[in-house]
Design goal:
Length: about 325
């Protein structure tokens, strides 16, 4: 990763110029930077050089013609997929997320990606209900800790898989931790939940884990997987498992979750859920775990920390006066 400079320009028709205050550091940033997107044509499959960065929050400083719903000074979020590690961002005026100016943007930026994934996996895909029993696979990262916090709010009894060094955080959310280094999660959960689980939310998306997790579900149980499969062959086997699981008579359901529907035009559910999440943050009912904050010019260090596997929660990049 290298620091580059581009000239500032006026926004084109339909665009706004955003002074970025904070950018999230997320796993898709690393996937894009490594060139590990599953297939060409996806937003993460980028040609070099490009700027990583899936989500930002900033202030609108200029507005192009044909933009009438946004004004200079508005604080907004953007689900960028790529391009977020920057001080100035040009973006379409009809794809902006209103962000309350009363909340810390460094604390709010995890809501743009990590929390929307967690919220929709729980409430739109799995349709969780209070009192249900859930297993969270990959519980210590930005999405994992969001799942734990939102799961606690939803009244779930949770089991959570992470390395032992992160178990204290899992317990803070009321989850029962499982160490994947020393415990077999199927045996650990099976011994405690003889009737099976209601929910499995999986951030790993590996075929073997999916098949074993489905075996933990009771009749009527639901599994949602939101991670990036290891390759096209793995994805094919996962899709076959999905079809088989969802056949009539299986008694269980399995869904794959992604944010692609937002980019395909189905934005209303996202807009509603971001509104809910910002309200929860304003009322202090949620508090994202911020593991580290880096100046935006130290994005390479931030990515290296994320890739180390030692992070519990979120990493953010700070620009401007928030540096």
């Amino acid at each position: 990763m290298e620091i580059g400079e581009k000239a500032v320009r006026l926004p084109s028709a339909g665009e706004v110029c955003i002074k970025v205050l904070v950018a999230a550091v997320s796993c898709p940033d690393v996937t894009a930077r490594r060139g590990e997107a599953l297939y060409t044509g996806t937003p993460l499959a980028q040609k070099l050089p490009f700027t990583p960065g899936y989500a930002v929050i900033g202030d609108v400083i200029a507005v192009g013609v044909d933009v009438d719903s946004i004004s200079i000074g508005d604080r907004v979020g953007v689900l960028t997929v790529t391009g977020g590690y920057t001080e100035m961002l040009y973006w379409k005026g009809d794809r902006l997320i209103p962000v309350p100016s009363s909340i810390d943007p460094g604390e709010a930026v995890p809501l743009i990606l990590n929390y929307i994934v967690a919220y929709q996996a729980l409430h739109r895909s799995a349709k969780v209900r209070a009192g249900e029993k859930a297993l969270i696979i990959g519980a210590s990262g930005g999405i994992g800790t969001a799942l734990l916090e939102l799961g606690r709010l939803a009244g779930l009894k949770m089991y959570a898989i992470a390395s032992k060094s992160k178990h204290a955080t899992l317990r803070e959310y009321g989850a029962i931790p499982i160490d994947y280094h020393t415990q077999d999660f199927v045996e650990a959960v099976g011994q405690l939940e003889l009737q099976g689980l209601d929910i499995v939310v999986d951030g790993m998306t590996r075929l073997a884990t999916i098949r074993r997790s489905l075996g933990l579900l009771r009749t009527g149980g639901r599994m949602v997987s939101y991670g990036e499969p290891a390759g096209l062959g793995e994805l094919g086997h996962i899709l076959a498992t999905l079809v088989k699981t969802n056949l009539p008579g299986s008694g269980k359901s399995f869904k794959l979750y992604g944010t692609s529907s937002y980019f395909l035009g189905n934005r209303k559910p996202f807009e509603e859920d971001w509104l809910t999440l910002f309200d929860l943050l304003e009322k202090r009912k949620i508090k994202p775990v911020i593991a580290a904050r880096f100046p935006i010019l130290e994005a390479a260090k931030a990515d290296a920390l994320l890739e180390s596997g030692q992070v519990t929660g979120n990493i953010v990049l700070l620009a401007g006066e928030f540096h």
